[in-house]
Amino acid sequence: MSIWVDTHSSLSRRTLSSALPPPRKMIKLGALQRTLVVNGEPWRLFSCMWLHAGVIHLVVNMLSLLFIGIRLEQEFGFFRLGPLYVLSGFGGSLASSLYANPAVPVSVAGTLVSVGASGALFGLLGAMLSELLTNWTIYANKCASLFTLIIVIVLNLALTFIPNVDGSAHIGGFVAGFLLGFILLMRPQFGYVSKKYIPPGYNSKYKKSKYKLYQYILLVSALGILLAGYALGLIMLFNGQTIGRFRRASQ
């Protein structure tokens, strides 16, 4: 999960001091804070996903990565899963920076500190869903697999409602990962044979294309939506706009 801390609240600092690193130390190490991002430190959108607020936070996220990530990396390899993980984390950081919780005063919202890999982890969950959809024709027990995955996703999204958990990072990472799954996790359709394995004299009219038409449509659509979402989000962020509150963010 991703955790945010209010750096202005003395109560928050006293309550969390025994379990979490001081907010100022997290900021120094690269934690996400919207005010710092828009004032010349956009690298925090990436650095925050490698930081955690204590040992328990780290262990929880690494166990999640262990259960979710190993299967995907075994099936698709590091060079697909690595970019998916990082770009999902970026999507989560961007959503976290843009979301202004109506319950938080405007003067405080821009100074909240967020750390954690949850955006990236939820991106892997989103990618698992889109991978199942885009490779639908090669799966057996499709409906059972889809139902099981949806239950897992819903249970994980329930973490969004825990106090001090950065739910916007979860949702942003999930959406980014869902779109990235259509782009990076396509599988060849059943019956496809690479040219180098086709024997001489084989009638090419029986050769199947590598991917189905709907897979290409999903890829192009997801790529367009993802790039537009990143561009719009960055424009809004650096123009001081937020989601969740119909006014400009305090900077």
Automatic annotation (TrEMBL):
Q: Where are the transmembrane segments?
A: 49-70, 82-100, 106-127, 139-162, 168-186, 213-238
MF terms in GO: serine-type endopeptidase activity
Protein topology in the membrane: Multi-pass membrane protein
Q: Which GO terms describe its biological process?
A: proteolysis
What EC class is this? hydrolase
Q: What is its EC number?
A: 3.4.21.105
**Which Pfam families does the UniProt record give?**
Rhomboid
**UniProt subcellular location:** Membrane
User: Which keywords does this Swiss-Prot/TrEMBL entry list?
Assistant: Hydrolase, Membrane, Protease, Serine protease, Transmembrane, Transmembrane helix
Name the source's superkingdom. Answer: Eukaryota
Q: Which InterPro entries match?
A: Peptidase_S54_rhomboid-like, Peptidase_S54_rhomboid_dom, Rhomboid-like_sf
> What range(s) does the Peptidase S54 rhomboid domain occupy?
40-186
* Gene Ontology CC, one term: membrane
Q: Which family does it belong to?
A: Belongs to the peptidase S54 family.
PANTHER family named in the record: RHOMBOID-LIKE PROTEIN 1, RHOMBOID-RELATED
Q: What is this protein called?
A: RHOMBOID-like protein
Organism the protein comes from: Kalanchoe fedtschenkoi
Q: Which classification does the entry list for the species?
A: Eukaryota, Viridiplantae, Streptophyta, Embryophyta, Tracheophyta
